[in-house]
């Protein structure tokens, strides 16, 4: 891991779709489908979104979706390419968890590409979420599209964020 950086954490805030789009475009191996990228950026306008900034410039965001009052999902999370491996995602996630606990949430889930897919980038993603305490729950072979297995991970929120 490179040197940690001093972050300004905020949220939930109304989205800044242009900032989200800039961050997502720095990660083409994760967000290479333009229509999906644009939708994730637009979703920051309507879903609770948390931001990490360095020197006033957004470098990461995390958008959450409520399924039930106690059960939420990481809808989209992205750390700008040149800020990765510096603890930004971990700090941003902890910030969002504290907010979720204040809302009475007890479970947080995330979906990502399953290990059956040969993507090294999504292997990193799975490792990141597992390091945050997520556990594998189920694989959906065709949830997003045939041939793209989706892994659902879940984390119990217990105040130890």
Automatic annotation (TrEMBL):
Keywords: Acyltransferase, Transferase. GO terms for molecular function: acyltransferase activity, transferring groups other than amino-acyl groups. Residues 5-158 form the N-acetyltransferase domain. Coiled coil: none annotated. CDD domains: NAT_SF. It comes from the Bacteria. SUPFAM superfamilies: Acyl-CoA N-acyltransferases (Nat). This is Acetyltransferase (GNAT) family protein. It comes from Rubrivivax gelatinosus.
């Amino acid at each position: 891991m490179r040197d940690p950086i001093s972050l300004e954490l905020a949220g939930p805030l109304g989205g800044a779709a242009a900032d989200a789009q800039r961050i997502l475009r720095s990660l083409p191996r994760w967000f290479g489908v333009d229509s999906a990228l644009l939708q994730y950026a637009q979703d920051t306008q309507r879903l609770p979104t948390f931001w990490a900034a360095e020197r006033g410039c957004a470098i990461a965001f995390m958008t959450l979706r409520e399924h039930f009052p106690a059960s939420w999902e990481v809808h989209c999370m992205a750390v700008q390419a040149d800020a990765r491996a510096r603890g930004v995602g971990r700090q941003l996630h902890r910030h969002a968890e504290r907010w979720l606990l204040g809302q009475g949430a007890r479970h947080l889930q995330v979906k990502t590409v399953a290990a059956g897919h040969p993507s090294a980038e999504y292997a990193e993603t799975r490792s990141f979420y597992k390091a945050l305490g997520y556990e594998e729950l189920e694989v959906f072979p065709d949830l997003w599209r045939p041939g793209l297995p989706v892994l659902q991970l879940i984390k119990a929120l217990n105040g130890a964020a």
